[in-house]
């Protein structure tokens, strides 16, 4: 509903990464990656380098040039969707999926389960950022899709979200897939003027005072959908995989294995929520690592 990413499809799990991946990137983009300042091999493809060299595509170009720009755009998009602790780079494992998408005609339905991959990546990022260990002296980093996490928070939680003063119907902005999050991006928003500096303690206190009556457990009501889309229909991409929303399974992304237990958040699906929630199905420690 927020991203319209597919759930049905092949897991985003790559084969073994080739040690010659920088040469593979050069072969596809016809451009050498910059030399990193750090010692050792590069950690990934720099996002700034992709933006600088492939952001603009001329109107009249040959198919090969278009293919190179599509490959570069997919790498950049994956870097935004799946940030990592190595900096603003695309992990080498994601090169495989960009190449697979570019080398074949675009299918009618998406081939990969990027929706479950985004959830798996988000769960692991939140887990790593909130649990300190004795094995590292570095402060924990929050490596998640920040746009997705922010939009999810605005939909469900009353803390730190803006007020939409001028709603905008997404379909007024041309063609393309629109989602429930389009209202936050397109509508004119008003932010609180009382929280400008040193807001972290205030947000922390507001989270501490939250109770279940203040949380929007189900933001996908008919009235809410009508407010966003007006007289237009909701895109099929938002609900095409709704049959899998209640599946209890393990979510996969590269080497991440994260449990998905929708029975712990039944209220957002319009169902009865057990309090306390039932004991979750756990993954053994070795599989999780």
Proportion of residues in extended strands: 5-15%
Q: Within the largest sheet, what's the order of strands?
A: 1-2
Order of helical and strand elements? HEHHEHHHEHEHHEEH
Q: What's the tally of helices?
A: 10
Q: State the helical fraction.
A: 25-40%
Uncertain residue ranges = none
Please report the total strand number as a whole number: 6
- Rg (CA only): 21 Å
End-to-end span in angstroms? 30 Å
| Structural class estimated from helices and strands | mainly alpha
The outline comes out as globular
What summary fits the major beta sheet? 2 strands, antiparallel
Mean pLDDT: 86
Protein name: Aminotransferase-like plant mobile domain-containing protein
GO biological process, one term: meristem maintenance
Organism: Hordeum vulgare subsp. vulgare
InterPro entries: AminoTfrase-like_pln_mobile (IPR019557), MAIN-like (IPR044824)
Can you walk me through this structure?
By secondary structure, the protein is mainly alpha-helical. The protein is built from 10 helices and 6 strands, in the order H-E-H-H-E-H-H-H-E-H-E-H-H-E-E-H. The strands form 3 sheets. Strands 1-2 form a two-stranded antiparallel ribbon. It has a two-stranded antiparallel ribbon with strand order 3-4. The chain has a two-stranded antiparallel ribbon with strand order 5-6. Helix 2 packs antiparallel against helix 3. Pfam families: PMD. This is Aminotransferase-like plant mobile domain-containing protein. It comes from Hordeum vulgare subsp. vulgare.
């Amino acid at each position: 509903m927020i991203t319209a990413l597919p759930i049905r499809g092949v897991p985003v799990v790559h084969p073994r990464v080739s040690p010659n991946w920088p040469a593979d990137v050069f072969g596809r983009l016809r451009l050498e990656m910059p030399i990193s300042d750090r010692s050792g091999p590069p950690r990934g493809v720099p996002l700034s380098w992709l933006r600088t060299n492939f952001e603009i595509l001329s109107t009249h170009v040959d198919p090969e040039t278009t293919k190179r720009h599509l490959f570069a755009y997919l790498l950049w998009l994956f870097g935004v969707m799946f940030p990592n602790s190595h900096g603003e780079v695309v992990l080498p494992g994601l090169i495989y999926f960009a190449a697979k998408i570019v080398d074949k005609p675009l299918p009618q339905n998406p081939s990969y389960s990027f929706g479950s991959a985004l959830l798996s990546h988000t769960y692991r990022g939140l887990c790593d950022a909130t649990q300190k260990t004795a094995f590292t002296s570095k402060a924990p980093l929050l490596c998640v899709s920040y746009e997705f996490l922010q939009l999810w928070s605005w939909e469900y939680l009353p803390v730190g979200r803006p007020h939409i003063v001028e709603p905008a119907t997404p379909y007024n902005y041309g063609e393309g897939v629109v989602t429930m999050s389009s209202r936050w991006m397109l509508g004119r928003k008003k932010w609180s003027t009382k929280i400008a500096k040193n807001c972290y303690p205030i947000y922390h206190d507001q989270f501490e005072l939250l109770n279940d009556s203040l949380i929007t457990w189900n933001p996908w009501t008919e009235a809410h959908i009508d407010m966003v889309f007006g007289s237009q229909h909701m895109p099929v991409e938002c609900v095409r995989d709704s049959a899998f929303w209640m599946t209890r399974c393990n979510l996969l992304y590269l080497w991440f294995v994260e449990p998905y237990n929708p029975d712990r958040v039944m209220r957002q699906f319009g169902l009865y929520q057990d309090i306390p929630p039932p004991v979750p199905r756990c993954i053994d420690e070795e599989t999780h690592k």
